[in-house]
Amino acid sequence: MTKDEMIGRWLTPDGIQRRRRVLELIKSGGEWPDALIGFPGVDEVRAREDLRGIDFSGEDLTHAQLPFVNFECARLDGATLTRADLTSAQLCGTSFVRAHARNCGLVEVDATGARFDCADLIESLMFHSNFVEASFRGANLEGADLSRCKLRGADFSDAKMAGVDLLHAWTEGAISLPGNLEPTRR
Which of 32, 155, 177, 184 is least enclosed, having the fewest CB within 10 Å? Predict the structure, then answer.
């Protein structure tokens, strides 16, 4: 599916109803992938965990259990993801601008080109992840664990990074890392 197709399917009358149902199920801890049976493109994604192109901007997803979800090209701007679990999620090109994601589980995600600008990621677990070319401009990453992450070309301009763990992270080519956090490639 193209990016336009991923986004456009959620704007149809069927897509609007499915989005509403998926959101209800996520919030209640239900089996949300079942609500996508027969929806365009879901067979391209493992176990129908296909939220590519969806717009959950401003939604409260506190404690949401979304491991392995595919949020490629989705929008979660201003969403609340506090203590949410997105382990092993596909987040390529996803927008988390101004998201509230304290203590969020972003372990082993592929977030190539994702935008976390001005997001609150305090004490989030983000290790073993791919954040190549991601943007963290103005984000608060205090106490976050970015160990063993790929950060090549990631932009940390104006980010708050006190206590960030970068052990064995690939930071070569990262933009605006604080001086006391030296780039490494191990």
Answer: 184
What's domain 55-186's architecture?
A: 3 Solenoid (2.160)
The DSSP annotation for 60-82 comes to B-TT-B-TT-B-TT-B-TT-B-T
What pLDDT digit, counting tens, does each position of 123-166 carry? 999 999 999 999 999 999 999 999 999 999 999 999 999 999 99
pLDDT digits (tens, 9 = 90+) for 78-87: 999 999 999 9
Q: Is the dihedral of CA 40, 44, 48, 51 positive or negative?
A: negative
- Give me the residue label for tokens 């901007």: 57
Task: For the chain, give every domain's residue range.
Answer: 3-48, 55-186
CA distances from 116 to 74, 75, 134, 184 (A): 13, 11, 7, 22
Spatial CA neighbour of 125 closest among 143, 110, 111: 143
Q: Note if the pTM is more than 0.90.
A: yes
> How many residues are there in the chain?
186
